[in-house]
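Quick note —
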Amino acid sequence: MDPDLLLIFGFILVVLSIVFPFAYAINKREHEHKERKLELQARAEEAKADQARFQNGDYSRMEERVRVLERIATDSNHALASQIEELRTLDRIETGNREMSK
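Predicted structure written out below.
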């Protein structure tokens, strides 16, 4: 074989052995960046959905229930059992209304 041809072949092998690892590293970083970007977009969408859910009245229902529970805790224990049963009944009604609206 021609020595010049061997020198050119060796040079090409050295250049490729340097270029391929760098290309692999760059491609890997780009892929990780895209995955991270999609993950952040998904989290932003989840946050928007949670915010919309609370704006639709879930927060007000929860606040109303907390007020009732505070009133029960501060009232006398005589009416406690009846008020707990009323809450259970209200919860069943709300659950039924939510299932009907779906």
